[in-house]
C-alpha cells in the first residue's frame, strides 16, 4: 500500500513536471510520435508489400485457371478424390476425411474458415433420352453420359429456368429421383421439366436402373460468384440432386457411388504475414498427409503452398532491399533520439542537480524522470500506430521516388513485428534518457557547475576517438564491396568495361543462389551508413579548427555577431554536436537516398529500354511471296528460288500518328568459327541511318559514340561491330575479317564481314547469351538474296501499342502485317506497379521525407530547448549594451553556420558516399537486372529542395528565436544567470 | 558640467503582477546620488535592492515615478536607446560575474569595446589597460572556468571599466566570494572610484562594504530609509 502511495505520488510529480513545461513536452512528444510512426511503419510496410506480392501471385494463379470464371480468394484449398483410380469409392469410407476437411482442417492450418463447400459426383450413367426406350435394355443410341452430382448450398446460387427445386428422394413414396439439369443440356437434348427418364449403369452385378424425373432446369445466377470455383459449365452433364438425396437415397443403393469428391476451403488470409509463409506451408503439408491417411486417394489439388514457398524466396530479396535501405534511416532515427534525449535532459540537469543536493536519491530522480519518459512514450506509441498506418498508406501509393500518384493498394495492418520495433525504439529512448539522467544525477549543484565548465571540452566520443574507430568497419565494408563488386556476396556486377568477363551465365546463377541468404554479411549493408556516420563525426573533429580560423578572421573586423557565433562554435563543440550530427546525417542520408532513388529510377528506365531497344518494338511479317503445298508461307525456300518475303519500306511507319522515327532491326542466331571452335551468338542487322534515331543508347555502352559506330558501318557495307570482350578474347582488331554463319529460316549462310568497331553493351544484348555482332541489314539481305521478317523499332510520342497497331494494320492505309507490339513505356508503367518496385521506392520516399521532417523537428527542438542558455547569455550581453541588431546578427550567424555546415558537409558527404557505394547496390536475381550497370545519378534537384527546406528551417528558427529575444526581460535573464 | 546629482529617483514604484496578485517591490523610492561617490545600497533580502538597481540601469522599467540617471530620463528611452546608453556610459557588475564562458578574460573585456564600435588598436590598448588595472594582465588568455571566483569578478570589473563609464552599478559583487577576496574586490572598487572619478552604486548586504563605501543607503520594504 505504501508502495502504491509512493508510486502515485511519483506519477503526480511526473505529470506536474510535464505540464509545467507543456510546450516542450508537446514538441518532444510530437517528435517521438513521428519517430515511432516511421519506425513502426517499416516492418508493417514490408509485410504489406510482401502480402500484396503473395496476393498478386495467388490472384495470378486463379485467373490463370482455365475452368474458373470467378476470381478465387487467395487462400482457397481444393482437396479432391477421384474414385475410379483409387479402389475404395464408398461414401462410408470418405466420411472421416469429409468431417476432417470441413471441420478441423482450417483450425489445423491456423486460419479462420470463411466458407467451405463439397461436391459429390457419382460414376457416369447412360441417360436414355428416347421416350420409347425399353427400360429393361441398355440403350444403344439416343443417350448421353451423365452423373449424379450434389453441391451444398446449391439452391441459393442457381436460377430455375423451368420447373422446381428437386424434392429429397424417398423411394418409399416415389420411385423417381428428382433431379435438375442444366439449361444448356436441356436445350441440346430437348428436355423439359417434369419428364421422366432412366439412368443405366452396367456393372459386374449387371444392369442398374435409376428412374429420374427432371424437376427443373437451372442456370447459374452469377457464374462469376466465388461459389463456382469450378465453372457452372463443368456441371452441364450433371444431374443435380439435393445432398440428402445423394448421401441418403442414392449412396446406400449404389455399389460404387463416388466418382469424385471435391472439398473446397476458403480461409481468411487477412492476417497472414510474410513470416507465416514457411510455417503455413508446413501446416498445409501436414493437413494433406492427414487427409490421405484418413482416406487413401485424397490429394490436395490446389493450395497456396507452392506460392507460399515461392513468395518466401521472392520476399527474401525484398526484405533484403528494404532492410538495406532502412539502415540509413535507422541511423538517422538514432541521431534524432540522441538529440532529443540530450536536449530534454540538458534542460533538467540543473533541477536534477538541485534535487540531488537537497537529498533526493538517484533512484527517486531516475524513477520520476523515467515515469515522465514512460508517459511521453506511451502517448507517442498510442498516436504513432495510426500514424504508421498513414505512412504505409502513403507508401502504398508510391509510383516513383516522392511520387505518390498510384491508387492506395496496401493492407493497413500493424504487424507484431512493427509493435516490437516500436517497443524496442521506445525502450531505446527510455534507456538513452535513463543513462543521461543517471549521469546527470551523479552531480550535486557544485559538481554540476564544474561539469558545465568541462562541457567546453570536445564531446566524449571525440575524446574516445570513436569517430576514428568507426572508419575501420566502414573502410573494411567499402573494401569488401569493392572486392566483390556488389552488396550481395557474389561475383562482380558487370561494369561497362568488365561486362564481357561476366558473360558467363554462372555469375547470374551464383547471384541468384546467393539470394537465399542475402544477410550473410550485415557489414555490407551497414557500410554506407557507417561511412556517413564516421565522416560526420570526423567532420565535427575538424570543425572547431575551421571555426577558429573564421573567428580569427572575424576578430580582425569590427563584427560582433559573426565573431561571437564563430567563437562559440569553435570553443564549445559539445553544445552543438548533437544538432550538427543530425543536420549532417540528414543531409548526407537524404542526398544518398535521393541519389539512390534517382539512380534506381533511371536504371529502371534504362533496364526496360535496354531490354526492348526503343520506344516501341514491332514484330512484322511482311507479305509472303512463296507458299508451300499446304498453303503456308514457305520460309525455307532456297535462295536460288528468289525472295520469300516482300516488305513495305520502313519509312511508311512514319505515316502512323505519333511515330517520329523507324528502323529495321533483325536478329538471327550466328556462329563465329574461331580457331576451329564455333562460338554461338547472335547477329543483329540494323538500318545504320535510322538506328541511332530510334535506339536507346548510353555513352558507357561503347568507347565510341553511337553516331561514330554507325559511321563505321556506313564506311564498309560488310562492316560489323562486335563486343569488345569478344575481340579481346579472340585477339581481333578493327580491320580484321570475321567469318560468320548466320542462321535464317532454317538455313545457314556463311558470310564474310570486316570488323569496324566495338562496344561493351548493345541494346537487347545480354552477354551470357553469347557474343553479339551488329552489321548492316541490307548487306545481310544481299548476301542471303532476299529479305526476311524483322522487327521495326520506333521512336514515338508516347503512343501506346493498340492505336499504333490499329493504324499500321488498317487495310485502307498502310496494311502492314504486324504480329506483335511491345511498348517500353507501357512496360515501365506496368513494372512501376510491381510490389518490389513500390516497396523500395516507397521506403526511400518516406525515408527521405521522414529524414527531412525529423530534422526540422529536431532542429527546432534544439533551438527551442537551447534557448534558455542563449537567453541568459543574450540577457547579459543586452545588459552590457548589445544592440538588438547585433543580437540578431549573433543569432543569425550561429544558425547560418550550423545550417550551412550541415548543408555543405552533409550534401558533400552524401554525394561522396553515393558515388562510393551506389554502384554496389545494383541487385537482382537475373542477369537482365544487372545490365546495363548503374550510372550513379546525383539528385541535384532534390538536394536543392533540401536546401530550400533548410532555408525555411533557418527562417522559422531565426524568426521564432528573434521574436522571443525581442520580448526578453533583461533583468529576468540576468537573474536566471545568477541561479543556474 | 552642472551640479545635478548623477542619479535622481522620485517616487519610484515597481509593482510586479502575478496573475491577480500585485507585489510592490519599490514603494515610492526617492533617492539622489552625487557624482564620484562609492555608494552602498543595503537592505535585507527582498527589500527591493536589485529591483532598484535594475531600474537605475535601465534593465527594468518602473511602474511609476521618475528615474533620471546621468541626465537621462530613463522612462523616456526605448530599449535600443537604453542599450546604447548603457554601453556608452554605464558599467555593470553582477553577482555571478556573467562572463561569457567561451571567451578569455581579454576577449570578455574586448567584446564590450567591440559592441561599442571601437577601432582595433583602441580596443587592444584599452583592454590591456583594464586588465592591468585589476591586476590580471598575466591571466588575459585564461577562460573564466580556469580562474578563481575573485579573479572572475576582477575580470567582470575590468569589463565594466572598459567603456570608461561614469557610473558603475554593481549587484552583490562580493556575494559569491570569501571575505578575503571580498575585501580585495571592495578595495579595488574604492581605488577605481577615487582614481577615475567614477560613481559606484553597489547593492550588497555584506557588512564589509561599510568599511569602503562613502555613503550607505538602507532600503526597507521598497523604500529608502
What does this structure look like?
The complex is a heterodimer of chains A (980) and B (225). Chain A is an alpha+beta fold and 980 residues long. Chain A has 3 domains: 26-51 and 312-610 and 832-979, no CATH class; 124-255, no CATH class; 622-816, no CATH class. Helices cover 53% and strands 16% of the residues of chain A. Chain A has 27 helices and 22 strands. In chain A, the strands form 3 sheets. In chain A, strands 1, 2, 3, 4, 5, 6, 7, 8, 9, 10 and 11 form an 11-stranded mixed β-sheet that branches. A 6-stranded mixed barrel of chain A has the order 15-16-20-17-19-18. In chain A, strand 7 and strand 8 (206-220) form a beta hairpin. In chain A, helix 3 packs antiparallel against helix 6 (277-294). The longest helix of chain A has 53 residues, at 305-357. Chain B has 225 residues and is α/β, with parallel strands linked by helices. Chain B has one domain: Rossmann fold (3-Layer(aba) Sandwich). Helices cover 34% and strands 27% of the residues of chain B. Chain B contains 6 helices and 10 strands; from the N terminus they run E-E-E-H-E-E-H-E-H-H-H-E-H-E-E-E. In chain B, the strands form 2 sheets. Chain B has a 6-stranded mixed β-sheet with strand order 6-7-8-3-9-10. A 4-stranded antiparallel β-sheet of chain B has the order 2-1-4-5, covered by helices on one side. Chain B is globular and about 50 Å long.
Describe the protein's topology.
The complex is a heterodimer of chains A (980) and B (225).
Chain A: H1 2-20, H2 22-64, E1 76-82, H3 91-109, E2 113-121, E3 125-128, E4 143-151, E5 158-163, E6 177-182, H4 183-189, E7 196-203, E8 206-220, E9 238-240, H5 243-253, E10 260-267, H6 277-294, E11 299-302, H7 305-357, H8 362-395, H9 416-441, H10 445-454, H11 460-463, H12 466-484, H13 506-514, H14 522-555, H15 561-571, H16 573-612, E12 616-620, E13 623-624, E14 645-646, E15 659-674, E16 677-686, H17 688-694, H18 706-715, E17 719-723, H19 724-729, E18 737-744, E19 747-759, E20 772-776, H20 777-783, E21 791-796, H21 801-809, E22 818-823, H22 824-832, H23 835-865, H24 867-880, H25 884-917, H26 940-966, H27 970-979
Parallel strand pairs in A: 4-9, 6-8, 16-20, 17-19
Antiparallel strand pairs in A: 1-10, 1-11, 2-4, 2-10, 3-4, 3-7, 5-8, 7-8, 12-21, 12-22, 13-14, 15-16, 15-18, 15-21, 17-20, 18-19
Helix pairs in contact in A: 1-8, 2-7, 2-8, 2-9, 2-23, 3-6, 6-7, 7-9, 7-10, 7-14, 7-16, 7-23, 8-9, 12-14, 14-15, 14-16, 14-25, 15-25, 16-22, 16-23, 16-25, 16-26, 17-18, 23-26, 24-27, 25-26
Chain B: E1 7-18, E2 21-33, E3 38-42, H1 49-56, E4 64-69, E5 72-73, H2 79-89, E6 90-93, H3 105-116, H4 120-133, H5 149-161, E7 167-171, H6 179-196, E8 199-204, E9 215-220, E10 223-224
Helix pairs in contact in B: 3-4, 3-5, 4-5, 5-6
